[in-house]
């Protein structure tokens, strides 16, 4: 049977190739839009390093299938990708902080629950499910209303990005809970986890790079990622 380290090794190879492809792709993207690509491609690069550490069997948590690199990889990936998706709606820094906090709590809750177990474990797993529900509510409600103030092409990009992440991360949540319930053995857990991780990181990066020019950027003063553009604190348009 193929070992788990071999699965991680394949993940390293795939993410490393993807990282190099995205670095080359950056040169074809207008300089005014590259700043939006940096955090996304950084997620792929960081995942390459963390997967390499996992393949080497370093920093594993005794008695579990968890590793420190794997936890850090998830922590960085999901917080960054959610923030990018929410920033496309022209949201405030406060909402960006919320978008970063929810996946951070989910990662901590899931991994803490898997390690400790018992009541703490149940609370951690509940945080994962409730966190995804809360994120969906914010994206489909307040954040979507805020997105009405950004140009149509950018609003469409936000809509596609949020739907992609909601679906992929939702599937990851379901598979993670099934793995904790003992439905899969350790090898299947590793394969599913790496496969879903690649889909989320590389899939989102490819989608984002292909559509990044839909983001509105002022030629004289480029909008900063996550800064409300042409909006006031109430979400109303600030320009005609």
From TrEMBL:
Parts of the chain that traverse the membrane: 6-26, 38-59, 71-89, 96-116, 122-144, 164-192, 198-217
Compartments reported by the entry: Membrane
Keywords, in A-Z order: Membrane, Transmembrane, Transmembrane helix
Top-rank taxon: Archaea
Mode of membrane association: Multi-pass membrane protein
GO CC term, one of those recorded: membrane
SUPFAM superfamilies from the UniProt entry: Family A G protein-coupled receptor-like
InterPro entries, A to Z: Arc/bac/fun_rhodopsins
Main location: membrane
Xref: SMART domains: Bac_rhodopsin
Family affiliation: Belongs to the archaeal/bacterial/fungal opsin family.
Entry protein name: Rhodopsin
UniProt organism field: Haloarcula pellucida
């Amino acid at each position: 049977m193929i070992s788990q380290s071999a699965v991680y090794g394949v993940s390293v190879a795939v993410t490393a190739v993807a990282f190099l492809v995205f670095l080359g792709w950056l040169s074809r993207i207008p300089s005014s839009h590259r700043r939006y690509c940096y955090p996304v491609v950084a997620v792929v690069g960081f995942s390459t390093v963390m997967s390499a550490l996992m393949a080497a069997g370093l920093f594993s948590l005794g008695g579990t299938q968890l590793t420190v690199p794997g936890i850090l990889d998830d922590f960085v990936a999901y917080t960054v990708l959610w923030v990018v998706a929410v920033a496309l709606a022209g949201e405030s820094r406060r909402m960006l902080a919320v978008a970063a906090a929810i996946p951070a709590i989910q990662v901590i809750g899931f991994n803490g629950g898997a390690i400790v177990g018992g009541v703490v474990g149940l609370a951690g797993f509940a945080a994962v499910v409730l966190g995804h529900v809360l994120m969906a509510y914010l994206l489909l409600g307040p954040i979507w209303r805020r997105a009405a103030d950004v140009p149509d092409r950018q609003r469409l990009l936000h809509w596609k990005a949020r739907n992609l992440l909601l679906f992929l991360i939702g599937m990851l949540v379901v598979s993670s809970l099934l793995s904790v319930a003992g439905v899969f053995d350790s090898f299947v857990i590793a394969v599913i986890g790496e496969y879903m991780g690649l889909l989320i990181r590389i899939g989102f990066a490819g989608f984002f790079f292909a559509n990044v020019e839909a983001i509105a950027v002022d030629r004289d003063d480029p909008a900063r990622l996550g800064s409300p553009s042409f909006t006031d604190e109430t979400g109303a348009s600030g320009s005609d």
